[in-house]
């Protein structure tokens, strides 16, 4: 059986800000260590035949300067590619552009550390509405898929069943626990607790979960 809480606890989450393209941007960071080589994790993240096994079907050219499109989700352009350690791309969705950066590093005790940063110019009103969980919960779902891809037999979740899984009790619990973890990361970054709580509850509801009472 897949352990939702164990997966939530295995992820490091961080909320911050940085100057990006001349403006202050919000940065949402997720990281997890996988029991696989750097080369294997790189292939899972960049091979168009393998990405659909844990994330979403993808079309386009997965190379420097190439344009990609994830089915029913974002598309963009690969802006940096340094195999097998890092790549960066635009993340274009709903008429807006943000950016993702992926870094891989071999862990001293074995395995590979996967870190993804999502960088976005977000106005204060929108940030106040949902906080980091707006993208954070989505990335938690993504790297959960990757964890299950590298996990024990029987752990893998067919991405085609993702919507149905989210509607299950296990899926709703995952959303609740992910959103709660992003609430904690938001508070750790200096957000007012009441504001962070309200944003997290709205995020939980938006992803189909139920806010804690």
Task: Determine the structural class based on helices, strands and strand pairing.
Answer: alpha+beta
Task: Tell me the β content.
Answer: 25-35%
Main sheet, how many strands, which sense, barrel?
8 strands, antiparallel
- Counting DSSP E segments of at least 2 residues, the number of strands comes to 8
Task: Report the CATH topology name.
Answer: Alpha-D-Glucose-1,6-Bisphosphate, Chain A, domain 4
Q: Which descriptor suits the 3D outline?
A: globular
In DSSP terms (H or I, runs of 4 or more residues), the helix count works out at: 7
Mean pLDDT reading:
94
Q: How many separate structural domains?
A: 1
What's the CATH H-level homologous superfamily?
START domain
The SSE string, one letter per element, is HEEHEEEEEEHHHHH
CATH architecture: 2-Layer Sandwich
Uncertain runs are: none
* Gyration radius from CA atoms, angstroms: 17 Å
Q: How far apart, in Å, are the first and last alpha carbons?
A: 27 Å
Helix-residue proportion: 25-40%
CATH class: Alpha Beta
- Order of neighbouring strands in the sheet with most strands: 1-2-8-7-6-5-4-3
Question: What would you note in describing this structure?
Answer:
It is a single chain. With 213 residues, the chain is of the alpha+beta class. It has one domain (4-206): START domain (Alpha-D-Glucose-1,6-Bisphosphate, Chain A, domain 4, 2-Layer Sandwich). 38% of the residues lie in helices and 30% in strands. It is built from seven helices and eight strands, in the order αββαββββββααααα. The chain has helices at 4-10, 38-46, 124-130, 133-149, 162-167, 169-188, 193-206; strands at residues 12-20, 23-34, 58-60, 67-70, 75-82, 86-93, 96-106, 112-120. Strands 1-2-8-7-6-5-4-3 form an eight-stranded antiparallel β-sheet, with helices on one face. Strand 7 and strand 8 (112-120) form a beta hairpin. Helix 6 (169-188) packs antiparallel against helix 7. It is globular and about 45 Å long. 31% of the residues are buried. Residues 36-148 form the Activator of Hsp90 ATPase homologue 1/2-like C-terminal domain. InterPro entries: ASHA1/2-like_C (IPR013538), START-like_dom_sf (IPR023393). Pfam families: AHSA1. This is SRPBCC family protein.
């Amino acid at each position: 059986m897949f352990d939702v809480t164990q997966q939530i606890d295995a992820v490091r989450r961080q909320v911050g800000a940085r100057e990006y393209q001349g403006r202050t941007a919000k940065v949402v960071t997720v990281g997890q260590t996988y029991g696989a080589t750097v080369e294997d994790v790189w292939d899972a993240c960049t091979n168009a035949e393998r990405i659909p096994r844990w994330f979403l079907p993808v079309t386009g050219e997965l190379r420097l300067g190439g344009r990609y499109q994830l089915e029913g989700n974002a598309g963009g352009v690969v802006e940096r590619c340094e195999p097998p350690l890092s790549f960066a791309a635009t993340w274009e969705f709903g008429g807006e552009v943000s950016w993702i950066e992926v870094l891989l590093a071999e862990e001293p005790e074995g395995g590979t550390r996967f870190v993804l940063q999502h960088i976005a110019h977000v106005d204060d009103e929108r940030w106040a509405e949902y906080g980091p969980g707006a993208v954070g919960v989505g990335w938690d779902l993504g790297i959960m898929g990757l964890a299950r891809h590298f996990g024990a037999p029987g752990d893998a979740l067919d991405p085609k069943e993702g919507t149905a899984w989210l509607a299950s009790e296990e899926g709703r619990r995952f959303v609740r626990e992910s959103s709660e973890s992003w609430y904690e990361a938001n508070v750790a970054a200096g957000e007012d607790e009441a504001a962070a709580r309200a944003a997290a509850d709205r995020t939980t509801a938006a992803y189909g979960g139920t806010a804690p009472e």
